[in-house]
Design brief:
By secondary structure, the protein is mostly helical. The chain is built from 6 helices and 4 strands. A two-stranded antiparallel sheet has the order 1-2. The protein has a two-stranded antiparallel sheet with strand order 3-4. Helix 2 packs antiparallel against helix 4, helix 2 packs parallel to helix 5 and helix 5 runs antiparallel to helix 6.
């Protein structure tokens, strides 16, 4: 081994050792950058804006899928032999669990983020006698209703959850009422 090779290996080993020691603090649980669910309330305008933008980002993930489920099952679309197996399954109302468009978890990601916002946004804050988060609150209620209605339209009876799920113990779908689109509408209208 040449001297140059030895120095490169030593330098790489030193950088790796330095990297491991500098990351040690990331693994401690007393970090000041950890936010716990009971400490995080949406009481600043920037908090609510970022929260709503996160919900919109999650909705964009399901937008194409929602259109496909609606249009491919409608009367005005006829697929040809070149359509993918997944699209043909949707059109035939025979979607398997392996179908890439069959993922109700993405709808629940929107719903859970909406539930979190609705539970933690400080709707009592006022500025000049106006409620600060009134518009955002209404928008998030609408997003949650839209996600539930699209979910029920695609899957029939679905677990109805209105509280944010922040731990694995609460994520059991059997613990919640399974409602169809009419029952969901009745619960969301008030």
């Amino acid at each position: 081994m040449t001297m140059k090779t030895k120095s490169i290996i030593f330098a790489a080993f030193g950088a790796a050792l330095l990297g491991f020691t500098s990351c040690e603090k990331m693994l401690t649980t007393e970090s000041s950058i950890v936010i716990f669910e009971d400490e995080d309330f949406l009481s600043q305008a920037t908090d609510t804006v970022y929260s709503v933008m996160g919900i919109i980002q999650k909705m964009q993930k399901i937008a194409d899928r929602t259109v496909l489920f609606g249009e491919l099952r409608g009367d005005l679309v006829a697929l040809n032999d070149l359509a993918s197996k997944e699209l043909q399954q949707i059109s035939d109302f025979n979607v398997t669990t392996e179908n890439k468009y069959n993922n109700p978890i993405d709808y629940y990601a929107v719903i859970n983020n909406c539930n979190y916002f609705l539970a933690h946004a400080d709707t009592a804050l006022k500025k000049n006698k106006d409620y600060i988060f009134k518009k955002e609150y209404g928008v998030v209620l609408s997003y949650r209703a839209w996600a539930y209605l699209r979910l029920a339209e695609a899957y029939g009876k679905v677990p109805f959850i209105t509280e944010p799920i922040t731990n694995g113990a609460d994520a059991d779908p059997d613990a919640y009422d399974k409602l169809d689109i009419r029952d969901i509408a009745r619960r969301l209208i008030p």
